[in-house]
Amino acid sequence: MDRSGVVEGPGSAEPPDHGENPRSETSATATATRGDEFRFRLYTAFVLAVGVLGAVSVAQWRPFEGSVHLWWIGPLLAVSFLAAEQLGVNVDVRSGISWTISFTEIPLVIGFFVAPFEVVLAAHVVAGVTTLLARRVTGRVLYNAGAFLIEVTSAFAVAGVVAAALGQPGGMPWPAALAGTLAAPLASTILAMAAVRVLRRRMQIGTVVRLAARILVVGFVNASAGLTGYLVIEGTPGAWPIVVAVSIGLVALYWAYSDLLREQRDMEALFDVSLMVARSDHQVAAQPAGKAGELETGLDLDEWHSIAERIKDQLAAGRVVLRLRLEPDEPMHVLVVGGELPDEQLRPDDPLLRLPGANVRHFRLTDGNVAVRAALGARGAQEALVVPLRSGNQLLGLVEAHDRLSRWRGFGKYDVQLLGTMASHLATALDNRRLLATLRHDAYHDPLTGLLNRPGFRQIAAEPLAERTGDSCALSQANPHVGAVVLRVDLDLYSTVSDALGYAWADRMVVAAGRRIRDVLGPEVPLARLEGASFAALLLDRTADETHAVAERVRAEASDPYPVEKLSVEANAMVGYACTNVLGDDGDPPDVDALLQRADVAVRATRGGEEVRGYVPSMGQIFLRRFQLVTQFRQALEDGQVSVHYQPKVSLPDKNVVGVEALVRWVHPEFGRVNPDEFVPAVEATGLVGALTSFVLDQALDRVRRWLDEGLEMSVAVNLSVRSLADEDFAEQVADALARHGVPARLLTFEITESAVMADPQRALPILGELHDLGIELAVDDFGTGYSSLAYLRRLPVDQVKIDKSFVFGMSTDLGDLAVVRSIVELGHSLGLSVVAEGVEDDSSRDQLEAMGCDVAQGYLISRPLAEDRLEAWLLARTARSAGNRDETVLTLLT
Questions:
Q1: 10 Å Cβ neighbour count for 161?
Q2: What is the mean pLDDT of residues 732-737?
Q3: Is 355 helix (H, G, I), strand (E, B) or coil?
Q4: How far apart are CA 824 and CA 165, in angstroms?
């Protein structure tokens, strides 16, 4: 008869065998399985009790009528029921439920006319139980026996009621037999749906309605055919060949119909698998990676569990095993759905794992190949469908389906075709997942070192930072941890090595530095290369002392010399770190970007000498002030906040004022007087130094022009930045400024430092030559502090050297400084250069310089840097005017 259930129960409706553990490693799933099994046992007891009580009631209602023919009618009915079960057509429905198109309605409807209730009941139960035992489905015998009892009992009960309604309570009219026969599959369907509910399986209402309708239609057709055949043969015994022919045609029609249903079922299963794969790929591609495993592999077995379940249900397999990986050199990740795999380890030369091509292979334990039998034995399987999943020539995985259930036969050609099509979709999905993993790895990792990059570090650090900033991270006796710490390491070797030896060697040193830091921190600590030779690491749950100790070890290891060819390159590592327990200005804990910025601030704070620093809020205020100065500087030029002060220079020994040095000053409306040592380097680093140089040059030349108008011929010295010496148009701009103000070039002096020239001598020397050709005097500022003074002094087109004030300060008390000053004076004169000494603050130093033959003195002994109006007052008060040799006005310092 037509009934709903899984194929394990051909004699009745039977739910899936939940004795199998889909994922034995999950304790929650095992607990749920035990709960389902307990509920189903209670349900089985209920069904069996109802069946027994119903059978007793119907037997008492319809008394037994014996016959001499029952000795052969009973066995013949049992054989007929058994044959009808074996000729049945099983069509699987979703969620492990199947629809069995059997022909048990035919012997049942005939049984109404040829045998009493007890004989038909016994024949049906014996045939059903025998079929279950033959198919080795022993776990549900009691449930199925109860279902058999309810089917036949309900059939005879309905038939009796209908017969009584037709006025023949003691007979069996054919409408009563037809109605009773339809009651049996309907009762089976109700039991099966109840079993699905007990086992907490889900079926849509539409699926239930369609299934019930099909069962009633097919049951009606079978019952009608059996009833018609019986009545025809009873009335015309010679017509039995026609009845047999019609029966054969009906069976053929059902088989054709089952093929159509199977194809529909396979198409639905293929669609389901394709949709699951597409949704999984979309979800993985859409969601951001937040864990290390997600950044590294991109393979989550949980996503494949539902796919394996669908394949198992569709193939009616006892077990489905997915072996997956994304790269050929990775180990296989094993996912088992269904019965547990034996604990026996598979051999490396297992033939089922080394299949060529991408076709489905069908292996049976009866095959003659010894290796195949051993492989199946290791899996505890009688037969297996195995298909490799490949991307090109690379093996990405395998799909194994073991032991088809609830069929007399094993896996067939349709199963092979279906699994092959599914496998092609899975192989494409794995290939896409591998591509996605590659793209994600490349997006979140540094290609040179293989470490995380900045986006990858941000992704990895986001979750642990959120977890720890949710709790109080304040330092205390009870909670000494600082929460999360971002550690930044900067090495000052990358640009130096790349300039000297090329980027290849610099890259090798960066890789070596990354390995050293990794060795100190360990493999579990997230480590990233941010840029150049800068690294960042995330430390969790460390105390302040532990954090500083780790930072010290990292600095020490990263600062060890690096072997480069036959050289040993010294490296200086600077380490700064920032903790989440230091809240932001808004009172909220800092995020990963804020911690990286704070760690960078701490690194820059180490350049004062201390090589490991932890971030404190005052550091941020310093750099915030610097940022404000830089961003407000251009507006400050326009608003008149920036001015030029002048410091006089006098010749020795006649004490004539021969010129001034132009020095920039800034009175900020919020910060007050800002030291030039604070804002000039910041302005120079941001590219605004050109505007500063132009401003100072214009102010200085304007002052010289007014002196010339007064008859005074005094020069002005302006400091040059390294960026100016890199500007090819700078000499032309200076020439335009001289022409615009009408100042002779000899009255302008540019002071340059040795470091500015040495930053890029190939570009600086031609520009200096152009300036010298204009007639501008060039002076080497801070002479004696550079590392190549003597080597480049002869090549530089300079006219003066300025002795650095650090030597002049100590000249009166330090014989070494005195010797250096004397040597510079003698060297300058031997090269035909004038010598200027800056930092002259006492008479003793001036007298010593005068005795050495120094040409010009500059310092606080003469005057501090003065604003323009105060300089004019100083000139009037401290100098005497006289006529020079060329009728020019000469200013002589009064003593």
A1: 15
A2: 93
A3: coil
A4: 135
Q: Give the start-end residues of each E strand in 742-833.
A: 748-753, 777-783, 800-803
- Cβ atoms of 614 and 543 closer than 8 Å: no
Per the listing, tokens 């009528």 go with: 65
Q: Residue 499: its pLDDT value, please?
A: 67
Q: What is the pLDDT of residues 210-249, one digit of tens each?
A: 777 777 787 888 888 888 887 887 777 777 788 778 777 8
Q: Residue 238: which residues within 8 A CB-CB, separation 6 or more?
A: none
User: Where residue 19 falls among pLDDT bands split at 50, 70, 90?
Assistant: very low
Whole-angstrom CA distances from 184 to 151, 161, 177, 181 are 4, 14, 11, 6
- Determine the Cα–Cα distance for residues 49 and 206; give it in Å rounded to an integer: 31
C-alpha distances in angstroms, 159 versus 115, 146, 176, 180, 220?
Answer: 14, 20, 5, 4, 14
**Rounded-to-integer distance, Cα 271 and Cα 789, Å:** 80
The set of residues, in sequence order, having a beta carbon less than 8 Å from that of 500 and lying 6+ positions away, is none
Take residue 293 and report the two structure tokens written for it: 């495993």
Q: How far apart are CA 281 and CA 303, in angstroms?
A: 9
Beta-strand ranges (E) seen in 213-332 are 317-324
Residue 12: strand, helix, or coil: coil
Q: Nearest to residue 573, comparing CAs of 642, 513, 614, 505?
A: 513
The structure's pTM equals: 0.52
Single-letter residue type at 639: D
Write the secondary structure of 498-516 as one string of H (helix), E (strand) and C (coil).
HHHHCHHHHHHHHHHHHHH
Say which DSSP state 726 is in.
G
Using only the alpha carbons of the chain, give its radius of gyration: 49
> Helix, strand, or coil here: 150?
helix
What the block records as the tokens of 795 is: 């090549």
Cα angle 72-73-78, degrees, rounded to a multiple of 5: 100
pLDDT in tens, 142-162: 888 888 889 889 888 888 888
Provide CB contacts within 8 A for 65, sequence distance 6+: 116
Tell how strand 800-803 and strand 777-783 pair up: parallel
Rounded to 5 degrees, φ, ψ at 490 are: -120, 130
Distance from C-alpha of 881 to C-alpha of 861, rounded to nearest angstrom = 20
What is the amino acid identity at position 524? E
Amino acid type, 748 = L
Distance between start and end Cα atoms, the chain: 132
Structure-token pair, residue 828: 């300058």
Structure tokens at 580: 């989440």
Cα(294)–Cα(524) distance, rounded to whole angstroms?
Answer: 15
Tokens at residue 159, please?
């038939």
Number of neighbouring beta carbons within 10 Å of residue 141: 17
